[in-house]
Amino acid sequence: MSLNNSQDKKAYTVIGLLSAVVLAFLVWLIYWKESPAEHAHWATWLPALNSIFNAITTVFLVLGYKAIKERKVSRHIKLMISATCSSGLFLISYITYHHFQGDTKFLAEGIIRPTYFFILISHIVLSIPLVPMVFTTLYHAGRRNHEKHKWIARKTFPIWLYVSVTGVLIYVFLKIFNTP
User: Fold this and answer.
1) d(Cα 77, Cα 72) in Å, to the nearest integer?
2) What is the pLDDT of residues 69-102, one digit of tens each?
3) How many domains does one find in the chain?
4) How far apart are CA 65 and CA 56, in angstroms?
5) Could you give the CA distance from residue 36 to residue 179 in angstroms, rounded to a whole number?
6) I need a labelling partner for 82 at 20 to 30 A (CA). Which of 17, 37, 52, 133 fits?
7) What is the CATH number of the domain that holds 35?
8) Would you state the pLDDT for residue 2?
9) Domain of residue 34, residue span
């Protein structure tokens, strides 16, 4: 057991450092990096792609949850790896968009404005712990430590699902209500 704890501690350190680097980079990219002088026209379609990746992740998460409840472990593994890959593709697309386009302002007024910002802020706040939670869940799955995997997965799943769904909602709000 001490070997496992030592390996876990090392893994948690790596996960913590990697998560901190990813999150620090995203904060810099969104809040401190200067917007490009000229926006790349080709990047304007990336928010739609981001939304598609979030929707795909949502489907994989729900199907993966269903598979494990039905004790279809092999199917669960494939679906959760697929959810991780689609989330990874989302992150690459998201970074690319923000690098070439900068931030998107929400212009709508009225009751929709606080609704949008509630969804956006909760999405952002929950995405911060989600990064290390997903890495930790995957780590324990890969180590076949089923009890620890199950424990962290029960906490990771609803947050990951919420972040994925609200990612789609944010795009929809921007598309429908963000008219200049």
Assistant:
1) 9
2) 999 999 999 999 999 999 999 999 999 999 998 8
3) 1
4) 14
5) 22
6) 17
7) 1.20.120
8) 41
9) 2-177
Q: How long a stretch of residues is the chain? A: 180
Residue 129, token pair as written in the block: 């712990």
112-142 vs 73-101: helix crossing angle, rounded to 10: 130
- What are 157-171's pLDDT values in tens digits? 999 999 999 999 999
The token pair at 148 is 């620890």
- The residue to which tokens 């990813």 are assigned: 22
Which two three-digit tokens encode residue 153? 């997965």
CA–CA separation, 16 vs 12, rounded Å?
A: 6
Residue 8 token pair: 């876990």
| Count of C-beta atoms within a 10 Å radius of residue 149 | 19
Joined together, the tokens standing for residue 145 give 């430590």
The H or E element spanning position 63 is helix 46-69
Tokens representing 31?
């809040």
pTM to 2 decimals? 0.90
Residue 158 CA to residue 31 CA, distance in Å, equals 27
Stretch 18-34: mean pLDDT: 90
